[in-house]
């Protein structure tokens, strides 16, 4: 009973826990644990992109109908981020939300088993909806946790590093699909049976991870902690009512448009390659997708490197601008040239999602948890844009023409980085949080105190902070 009492899941929101003042060294363990979750939704999302084409083959359905997978998956996000997950996050805290999301994900993976067994596409979409609810719950908690846990000035760098593991997951899933899903012929029962074992393995692992989270002593960050961060940096815009947080709602709109475009491109990448590169097999196209997702993951690490020397808002503007520039030629180009344009587009997509999250939450203070729900809710764009692209592809019998759809949504999302860079009301709160000394000053004072007898210095943490500051 003492163990369960020690790991109580009820945490108040009005008292400070000092968790918002963690140093780099103190935040390493909770950040590493939460980063595991980023791999999960990257893997799940990458798996969905591969299954999109797989179900077209095995169930003989069109592009628009197969996009129902993305619609079910991402359609669940606002239900979680603005509903049940956000309620749990605001009333109980981060750890219970992590556990709730993992359990939902596991339940959805288990339900997928009989649906695949009976070749029920509608049933599988329902299972994917439950998985999406779980992953939406995880994102509702994990994204703000990564941005808040540790020195505020490194929030964009932290979330991009964590999201890089999301990118790794999107690489692993298509590789798995090319060797497991497309290994058998369309009429072979093993073509769907292999998918069952993958989802069973997912269920077992996520239930185990939920238990790990329960017993792990991760710091809980309250509304009072987040308000302290914003007040200390003079970036607090939470003095206005929540409905007047127009920067937040603009970020949510940008997330809707950007995520919809990203999901549409990845979801129909295999179709695009097969349509524009004659003779390409499904297995080879899935391997090409894995290569493109590898570029996506590498783009995040490259973005983190650039953010050490250039303000994150400027890197974000550069990357999203390049997305627009390079996806446009893919509409008219064919063969390796068109595919290369999508490769470059995925590279520049890499940092956009985490930058919208980090910049959109700058200075929200006590509204941070509610704000996270709105920004993550914008992910439902992934339920809207892919079916539009699929319908255009079905109408013209050419996926390349459908790439005009994500181009239009990229342009709409572009309004946000423009505002963050050139509108003072957006730019000033972002820059003030980026110059914060919270967490960094703590380490420096520890270093000064270490000169006194009997004091020990965490040298690794100090050196890490100083190098990051440089």
From TrEMBL:
<feature type="transmembrane region" description="Helical">
    <location>
        <begin position="120"/>
        <end position="142"/>
    </location>
</feature>
<dbReference type="InterPro" id="IPR050375">
    <property type="entry name" value="MFS_TsgA-like"/>
</dbReference>
<keyword id="KW-0812">Transmembrane</keyword>
<dbReference type="GO" id="GO:0022857">
    <property type="term" value="F:transmembrane transporter activity"/>
</dbReference>
<dbReference type="InterPro" id="IPR011701">
    <property type="entry name" value="MFS"/>
</dbReference>
<feature type="transmembrane region" description="Helical">
    <location>
        <begin position="248"/>
        <end position="272"/>
    </location>
</feature>
<dbReference type="InterPro" id="IPR036259">
    <property type="entry name" value="MFS_trans_sf"/>
</dbReference>
<keyword id="KW-0472">Membrane</keyword>
<feature type="transmembrane region" description="Helical">
    <location>
        <begin position="163"/>
        <end position="182"/>
    </location>
</feature>
<feature type="transmembrane region" description="Helical">
    <location>
        <begin position="338"/>
        <end position="359"/>
    </location>
</feature>
<feature type="transmembrane region" description="Helical">
    <location>
        <begin position="371"/>
        <end position="389"/>
    </location>
</feature>
<dbReference type="GO" id="GO:0005886">
    <property type="term" value="C:plasma membrane"/>
</dbReference>
<feature type="transmembrane region" description="Helical">
    <location>
        <begin position="197"/>
        <end position="216"/>
    </location>
</feature>
<keyword id="KW-1133">Transmembrane helix</keyword>
<feature type="compositionally biased region" description="Basic and acidic residues">
    <location>
        <begin position="456"/>
        <end position="470"/>
    </location>
</feature>
<feature type="transmembrane region" description="Helical">
    <location>
        <begin position="96"/>
        <end position="114"/>
    </location>
</feature>
<feature type="transmembrane region" description="Helical">
    <location>
        <begin position="401"/>
        <end position="423"/>
    </location>
</feature>
<dbReference type="Pfam" id="PF07690">
    <property type="entry name" value="MFS_1"/>
</dbReference>
<keyword id="KW-1003">Cell membrane</keyword>
<feature type="transmembrane region" description="Helical">
    <location>
        <begin position="68"/>
        <end position="89"/>
    </location>
</feature>
<feature type="region of interest" description="Disordered">
    <location>
        <begin position="444"/>
        <end position="470"/>
    </location>
</feature>
<feature type="transmembrane region" description="Helical">
    <location>
        <begin position="315"/>
        <end position="332"/>
    </location>
</feature>
<protein>
    <recommendedName>
        <fullName>Glucose/galactose transporter</fullName>
    </recommendedName>
</protein>
<feature type="transmembrane region" description="Helical">
    <location>
        <begin position="28"/>
        <end position="48"/>
    </location>
</feature>
